[in-house]
Amino acid sequence: MRRPFLLLASRAEDVAADGEYAAFLRLSGLAEHELRRVRMEAAPLPDLDLDDYAGVFLGGGPFNSSDPPGGKSAVQRRVEGELAALLDEVVARDLPFFGACYGIGTLGVHQGGVVDRTHGEPVSCVSITLTPAGRADPVLAGVPPVFDALVGHKEACRVLPPTAVLLASSPACPVQMFRVRQNVYATQFHPELDVPGVVARARVYQHAGYFPPAELDELIARLSRAVVTEPGRLLANFVARYG
């Protein structure tokens, strides 16, 4: 029996958390017993032996690495500390890791990049362009050089970590994906989201500051016209490579 993958999640809202887990399952091709989920916002991270897992996913969430220290809740500070310790081991051992959205902020800070609010993007569908390194990367195998993906983030990596290789970019957000060493990945866009998924998530986070709450219906109408087919391939490729 192959080792399972691990999904580290931090969404406090059950609808969003369960939707994220279902999306990772569907697009990765994993069954529930092959993807263990730990909700970090709910309790301290249990003792983990990373050798028990084929790879680690880090989902998105409400936390921003660039939040002022005094404005961070006790839960956010705990989660950040636990992730920093985990990334120490992940990077040192070059263990398979894939962080989505919040993952790029966390890994970016950990590796000495600059994460701030310069390149935040509204909830939208954007065009992503692969770099030459991205076109050659196995986790991006089969992905066209330019593709559409769903985004929605208040912060982004403004200065690429010195240890990172840029894999994908977009006009409004130059760092959309990078790799550290050979097996540690992070994206700013959401590889787990399709159009129904982002619409459901927009409803959950209507009052979370990502867009004016009164514009929800207009936003949903705009999102519903998007055609997003490629980003989920990254999750399937990651599992195929490391599973």
Automatic annotation (TrEMBL):
<dbReference type="InterPro" id="IPR044992">
    <property type="entry name" value="ChyE-like"/>
</dbReference>
<dbReference type="InterPro" id="IPR017926">
    <property type="entry name" value="GATASE"/>
</dbReference>
<keyword id="KW-0808">Transferase</keyword>
<dbReference type="GO" id="GO:0005829">
    <property type="term" value="C:cytosol"/>
</dbReference>
<dbReference type="InterPro" id="IPR029062">
    <property type="entry name" value="Class_I_gatase-like"/>
</dbReference>
<dbReference type="GO" id="GO:0016740">
    <property type="term" value="F:transferase activity"/>
</dbReference>
<protein>
    <submittedName>
        <fullName>Glutamine amidotransferase</fullName>
    </submittedName>
</protein>
<dbReference type="Pfam" id="PF00117">
    <property type="entry name" value="GATase"/>
</dbReference>
<feature type="domain" description="Glutamine amidotransferase">
    <location>
        <begin position="49"/>
        <end position="193"/>
    </location>
</feature>
<keyword id="KW-0315">Glutamine amidotransferase</keyword>
